Fold this sequence. Notes:
This protein is mostly helical. The chain folds into two domains: about 1-45; about 70-109. It is built from five helices and no strands. Helix 1 packs antiparallel against helix 2 (about 25-40) and helix 4 runs antiparallel to helix 5 (about 90-109). The radius of gyration is 22 Å and the shape is elongated.
Amino acid sequence: MQELKNHDEALQARVQSLAHLPNEAKAAQRQLIARERLQYRKPKPAQRLDRQRTDWHWLYRQIKREWKNLKGLQNRERIWCFLAYIVDGSVENTEALDKLYARFNATDN
């Protein structure tokens, strides 16, 4: 998220630096900047992580810190909990499923 914020700030600085240009040139530059912003925000394909070279502790901390913004991972967690309950049906999974229902019902209100 910090990288996205830095990119937006750099683009905003570019927009502000257009003050000396004629209006037609400003409009054209703003369109280019808007397209670049959209291109940068497009979802990136998933990358495979090298098991040996990945700093798993750093990755874990990043995920914990940014959890509220990682909707895709939240959805994956929800699906895996439901799947575990369907496949196994164990008491632990039933309790986990009940907690999950409570958490999602609390966010819907």
